[in-house]
Amino acid sequence: MQDFGAAFAEAFALIVGLDAELVAIIGLSLRVTFSAVIIACLLGLPLGALLAVGRFPGRGVVIVVISALMGLPPVVVGLAVYLMLSSAGPLGVLQLLYTPTAMIIAQAVLVTPIVAALTRQVVEDLHGEYDELLRSMGSSRLGTIATLLWDARYSLLTAALAGLGRALAEVGAVMIVGGNIAHVTRVMTTAIALETSKGELALALGLGIILVCLSILINAGLLGLRRTAERLAYA
Question: Could you tell me the CATH superfamily of domain 12-233?
Answer without folding.
Answer: MetI-like (1.10.3720.10)
